[in-house]
Amino acid sequence: MKNIPYGKQYIDNKDIASVGKTLKNEKITTGKEVINFEKKLSFYLGSKYTLTCNNGTSALFLAFKSINLKKNDIVIMPSINFISSYNVAKILGAKVYLADIDFYTGQMTPKNVEDCCKKFNLKKIKAIVVMYMGGYPYNADKFVKFKKKYKSYIIEDACHAFGSHYYSNNNKYLIGSCKHSDIATFSFHPVKSITTGEGGAVTTNSKKIFNKLKLLRSLGIFREKKNHWSYDIVHNTLNFRLTDFQCSLGISQLKKINKFLTYRKKISDIYDKKLNKIPNLIITKQNENYCSSNHLYIIKLKINDKKIKTKFINYMLKNRVTLQYHYIPINKFKVFNDRFLDFNAKKYYNQAISLPIYYKLPQKKINYIIKKIEFFFKKKYY
Ligand SMILES: Cc1ncc(COP(=O)(O)O)c(C=O)c1O
Pick from 368, 192, 319: which is nearest to 264 by CA? Predict the structure, then answer.
């Protein structure tokens, strides 16, 4: 048996055909497929505006630049997160405060934000970055109150949450609709809900932000006149464009989104049912108002001891199952030089592990993974 990865893409002949077709177009970048993909994303997500870009990290860069994040501005983000939002904020000279997280969900809560503000006496915050660990959009409607209180922008790093939705006041919203935020960012990396190889998108309902995003994506080039040789440069920025053939792949993948989400949910339900019976594990029961894309399936060991987590990962690896950490707390990295709170983050880091989950992960392999996990704890291999 080949090694089982924790995540991977699903590409079919229709995806290949649509990329091939676009490669024959006159324009293979800055063409009509980019606009098509953006329109379809806006329609699916329920946002007024969508801008594609070349990856999820660029999407965060564009989001921060579009709100004019600059030197010494304050940004709050969760201490457990992928490094992108921290790196981008630092490149722009911001002061970052890492809020602690809730151990059970692995996510920063509104209370964690308040605690962080109290602890570091923060009154005005330029941006609060929310991240939905594994795709679970918990509290997605609960950060919006900070916009007024701290004069803050709310940015959703929704890279895990493409296809996640939630209910607020009996209305259904998709993450990316920006009904309770200013901007949402996505990644279309191969392990994500849909892929364009590398790729990303930014969504917003603000015309002002969107117009700025368009300039920021493409070297700050501003064309007032029709003449293609006449233009001005209005921002110092880079080239973050996504090609037309990648957008064609995105359009073709988007057609399968419901299939992808249903399958991921099925795997998650099987894991829930079986793994809940293992007393050594903590399985997060999700609130039914917040529906995950199931980008990741995360379990937590009951014992707070990283040595056991390492043993477990090695044991699974020997059995050809690759598990993953999501994530090492940001304050542990050499590049980190800001303030942080990490009481629960430390515990989470010691205990949380991601299991394989992806479209078409066969039932046989799911059963195999579960058997191996059961065996590890039954035999007390730790
Ligand atoms: C939460 C989060 N933010 C940002 C990113 C960055 O996306 P990309 O790898 O497309 O740059 C990722 C990707 O793994 C992510 O998981």
Answer: 192
All residue ranges of the chain with pLDDT < 50 are: none
Our answer on whether the CB atom of 196 is closer than 6 Å to any ligand 1 atom is no
- Ligand 1 atom closest to 198 (CA): 10
pLDDT tens digits, 225-263: 778 889 999 999 999 999 999 999 999 999 999 999 999
State the pLDDT at residue 381.
80
pLDDT of residue 37: 99
CA distance 119 to 111: 12
Going along the chain from its start, the domains and CATH numbers come out as 13-254 (3.40.640.10), 257-378 (3.90.1150.10)
Note the pTM of the prediction, 2 decimals. 0.98
**How far apart are alpha carbons 144 and 179 in whole angstroms?**
9
**Residue nearest ligand 1's atom 9 by CA:** 56
**Residue to probe by mutation, ligand 1, list 9, 129, 159, most atoms within 8 Å of CB:** 159
- 74 vs 77, 101, 115, 334, CA distance in Å? 10, 19, 15, 21
Q: What is the position in ligand 1's atom list of the atom closest to the CA of 189?
A: 10
